[in-house]
Amino acid sequence: MNNLLISEPPLQVLPSLAKIVGLNEAIVLQQFHYWLERSNNTRDGYKWIYNSYSKWNEQFPFWSNATLRRTINNLEKQGFFITANYNKAGFDKTKWYRIDYERVSNASAQNEQTSCSKCASASAQNEQTNTNRLPETTTETNNNTSDNKSDHIQYKQIIDYLNEKAGKHFKNVESNKKLIRARWHEGYRLDDFKKVIDNKVLDAKDANSFFTDKYLQPSTLFGNKFDQYLNQQIKPKVEKGTKSYGGVEF
What we know:
This protein has helices at residues 15-21, 23-36, 53-59, 65-77, 101-133, 139-149, 155-166, 174-185, 190-205, 218-221, 226-230; strands spanning 42-43, 46-47, 49-50, 81-84, 96-99, 244-245, 248-249. The chain is mostly helical.
């Protein structure tokens, strides 16, 4: 049999204990527990164990003496070990150890509570993330969402201005609102829509223009050429036989 596989009493440790106190500390704590259950040294109502570091080191030959000392001291500092001196000789400073099982229990409970809290928090966050990232995608929902985001868009003012300037009777219906909304989301505002309408109304009146009255409709004005129409320089047509000076025709 392979001599690296278990053929002798193993040192056992629970991963959950190692998570709380550290791996080295968990190994020592488990081993001390093993010997405390078999100890006949009872003092003040508790079972105790004792040994020199060199003797303890025989049980943990894979560690240096310094590592073992540091691990035992860590457990003592964290309150998992309680120490005393019940040696008969006053010069004997060998430490006696017992485990504070209540401290172990509390640490385990605290770890479980923290883990549950993190799980609950992660679950809530995941639920919130899923809710935000995976909304309903029905047509009705999408339309409602668009309307909520577009409440500030001045649909009526734009349609009314077009009707007034072009002598039309367009309605504030979704097909027209959709065009206005697209341009609005690109950053254009009420004054831009009015300027486009003004420009193209003047353009339609120009006898030399290809843009005629029939093109004065939302599908043309508020389409993909909106920016081009906005920046178009159109001079008002001056009727023949009139002269203008200082803005006054005569």
